[in-house]
Specification:
Elements (H helix, E strand, L loop, with lengths): L3 E4 L4 H14 L4 E5 L5 H6 L2 E3 L5 H10 L4 E4 L5 H6 L1 H22 L2 E3 L2 E2 L10 E3 L10 H20 L3 E2 L1 E3 L1 E3 L12 H12 L1 E4 L7 E5 H13 L11 E2 L3 E3 L1 H9 L6 E4 L3 H8 L4 E2 L2 H7 L7 H23 L3
Parallel strand pairs: 1-2, 1-4, 2-3, 4-5, 5-8, 6-9, 7-16, 9-13, 10-12, 11-15
Antiparallel strand pairs: 12-14
Helix pairs in contact: 1-8, 3-5, 5-6, 7-9, 7-12
């Protein structure tokens, strides 16, 4: 039975991945770690430890204390926040990953470290972006993701560390609020549609980006870590996607469930520039061939499920907030 540490366990993916891993491997075999204290769901399913991935001593102590053999390293600064705080982004995204890889080398741990479509840049082919292609990002987030991909490859080839990862697209979830990513407009739009019936989008019409619903993102991580290593030619930074849409596409789909929904635009030049440097749609055939990747959700099924879950969540929050 695996003993797993999840860093960044309170993030958008980490919060749900931790629970999925605990369901699969048992509560006591999955340790959640984050700089912030846990929410009720994570606290109830424990164990939880407050850790900072840039503190190598603290992470090393945790790995030894719990006899960890697998690390899902999700702690990271996302794209828009990284542009506002580039020094912090480098420290967390690169130094934090280096610490985890060093600990994995010493303790013989497997490591899942996600990259992103942000690892591509304006000179990358934007349509059907190949698995192996030019990567010259012009954002700090993208720079850290490319460097992280190379670092994971190096630790596998040089030290034999079992490193694996995917390039996640934008991820949509009802559980956690947006966390500073460029693709977060889609999550914001859902909340605004359910609560206010209107949304002001910070990306312009026609901005196509790869997206994925959170259940698929979680399954991609777990499936890759459980895949037969003999089949993996790339190991790290697999392109994965489920759908590609522009803001107006998801707005149209939302209107099928919320007919009065209205969207206008107020373009954020920083996030628009980031989005314009990313692919319209990636080619994920390598992931499909090497470990059987295939998404369960498309735009239609994702929107239907997301709205249903958000309505329940927001209604419950209102009831809790109204208690004396």
């Amino acid at each position: 039975m695996r003993r797993i540490l999840v860093t960044g366990a309170r993030g958008q993916v980490g919060s749900e991945l931790t629970l999925a891993l605990r369901e699969r491997y048992g509560n006591n075999n999955v340790i959640a770690g984050d700089k912030r204290k846990p929410d009720e769901k994570l606290l109830k399913s424990c164990p939880f430890e407050v850790i900072d991935c840039t503190d190598i001593g603290a992470v090393k102590k945790l790995v030894k204390e719990y006899s960890v053999d697998t690390i899902y390293h999700l702690a990271a600064i996302l794209s828009a926040t990284a542009e506002a705080k580039p020094q912090l982004a480098w420290d967390v995204n690169i130094n934090g990953l280096y610490n985890v890889l060093e600990i994995a080398r010493e303790s013989k741990c497997a490591v899942f470290s996600p990259s992103s479509i942000g690892a591509f840049g304006p000179t990358t082919p934007r349509d059907n972006t190949p698995q192996d292609t030019i990567q010259r990002p012009d954002t700090m987030y993208g720079v850290t993701k490319v460097a992280g991909e190379l670092l994971c490859d190096y630790y596998h080839k040089r030290f034999g560390v079992d490193t694996r990862g995917v390039r996640w697209p934008g991820i949509i979830s009802s559980e956690t609020p947006p966390g500073g990513g460029t693709t977060d407009y889609a999550v914001e739009m859902f909340y605004a549609a359910v609560e206010q019936r209107k949304y002001t989008c910070f990306l312009k019409p026609g901005t196509y980006l790869d997206m994925m619903y959170i259940p698929d993102a979680i399954r991609a991580a777990i499936d890759l870590m459980e895949a037969d290593h003999h089949r993996l030619k790339h190991r790290n930074a697999f392109n994965v996607t489920a759908m590609s849409f522009a803001p107006e596409d998801i707005a149209d789909e939302i209107r099928k469930h919320i007919p009065g929904f209205v969207m206008d635009y107020e373009i954020d030049p920083v996030r628009q520039a980031i989005a314009d440097s990313w692919p319209n749609k990636v080619d994920d055939s390598a992931a499909r061939e090497e470990w059987g990747w295939s998404p369960d959700y498309d735009l239609e099924t994702m929107v239907e499920d997301m709205i249903a879950k958000l309505k329940v969540k927001l209604r419950n929050n209102l009831l809790v907030g109204s208690r004396p």
